Amino acid sequence: MTTVSAGQLQHQLLRQVATVRPAEASTFRINGKDIGLVLPNALPFFLSLPEELRSALSFSGQSIELTCPAPELDERLDAMGRHWYRAGALSRWCDELLDVVTHDGRIVAKAERAMFRFLGMTTTCVHGVGFQNGKWLMSLRSRTKLIQPGKWDTLVGGLVGAGESHRQALQRETLEEAGLPPTSYRIGQPSVGLYERPLPDGWLREYSVTYPMYLLDSASPRNMDGEVERIESVDGVTLLSRIADNQVTVEASLSFLSLMLDQEPFSV
Length: 268
Prior knowledge:
The chain is built from eight helices and 16 strands.
């Protein structure tokens, strides 16, 4: 038996995700602004772009810069992304747009979701940590998910789409993933973390916005989009045990732990 507290687990996980930028990676810039991070295995796909697309790129040291008039950026990024998808650089095409933001938070364009890890661009993910009848709600991710399949997750979670507010994204994801309208829960104040690390499809740079969600006793969450195998209601001991045993996604673990720091240690 090992005594583990929420604080200890959070410390361990934060060390795990504190990835140093790879020395050989290239900064991706748009019109002079830092936008993302390109890993070395992606560079050949830049060089293979057709001339009409590659002509807008410049390569200098460990930097790749796209120079393009602002009104044409969305179209230019879309054309590049579609070429990379056909070339096999992107594992899928989602037909979902996300805001392209500078590292200081300014929106400069919109782009296909599938491009963001490939280019190391910043995303924002909202997590809803569900509470009901004194228990924590956990969702088991489908085993067909590309990232961390078959692991436990927060009740709901998903990326903020282009033009969406954090709360709008949370309400949309809650309806899609748990079948719950806004009238069936109350939202608390969020906590925010920024995480960076390599993933199979590129580089993750993501703001994680975690909202506590207090469900009415009469609410009955059920998955609607097929991305969750089941939803379970668990006590704090079980939740910490699953986190300690690496059964929970990294992002969800940190979201849960951000709301558990006042808990006493549990034996797991």
